[in-house]
Amino acid sequence: MKKITLFIFTCLCLGSAFSQSRIDSLQAKENDSLGFIIPDTGNSRIVEINRLLSTAESQMGTPYRYAGKKPGGFDCSGFVMYCYQHSLGITLSPSATTYFKHGVKVRKESARPGDVICFTGSNAYNRSIGHVGIITEVTPTEIYFIHSALHGGIRCDVLSSNYYKTRFLQIRRILQ
Questions:
Q1: CA–CA distance, 56 with 166 (Å, rounded to integer)
Q2: What percent of the chain has pLDDT over 70?
Q3: Is residue 163 within a helix (H) or strand (E), and if so which, with residue range?
């Protein structure tokens, strides 16, 4: 009888510990953002970049709206313009076609979070800027970005996807 009681007690304790561990884990996941925030490494632009990425992330799921410039609905350039203006007070163009005039062009290998990534529009053969987004993360093998897509609204994508890889044009650094 003593062994059965001890066994039951042990099972209850382990079950309780597992349950609490699982609850803690789920709460941590609920409180986690998408991971856009980058650690401060002493670079004075990190605070600004984090503010920009936080603003962008807060709009996840907002629907696409043709010529949209407000949180009720964005087109691609309206989203980028809103994020820079709302978080940093930087005014950018409301038209993707003029983003070649903003900031400086940087090589893909030099990309960093906060840079604007530029693509052709839906016609990959027209090599002028027709779509823009904000880079959220750069790894040795991938560039992640957030943008307003016709299908899906504000969402994250990767440069290596076939759709974006063939339409990639350039990266513009707004924050020097």
A1: 25
A2: 75
A3: helix 162-165
Are residue 152 and residue 164 in the same domain, yes or no?
yes
**Same domain (yes/no): 24, 76:** no
pLDDT (tens digit, 9 = 90+) per residue, 111-129?
Answer: 999 999 999 998 888 999 9
Structure tokens at 68: 């949209």
CA 114 to mean position of chain CA atoms: 9
- Do 163 and 108 reside in the same domain of the chain? yes
Predicted TM-score (pTM) of the model is 0.77
Q: Tokens in use for 21?
A: 């561990």
Q: Give the integer Cα–Cα distance in Å for 86 and 48.
A: 12
Give pLDDT, residue 30: 33
Handedness of CA 79, 105, 160, 129 (dihedral sign): positive
Q: For the chain, how many structural domains are there in total?
A: 2
- Max Cα distance, the chain (Å): 81
For 8-17, which contacts have Cβ atoms below 8 Å and span 24 or more sequence positions? none
- Give the structural domain span for 5: 1-32
Please, are residues 82 and 66 in contact by the beta-carbon 8 Å criterion? no
pLDDT at 137: 98
Give the N- to C-terminal CA distance of the chain in Å, as an integer. 73
Q: What digits encode the pLDDT tens for the residues 83-112?
A: 999 999 999 999 999 999 999 999 999 999
Picking from 54, 93, 86, 65, the residue whose alpha carbon sits closest to that of residue 172 is 93
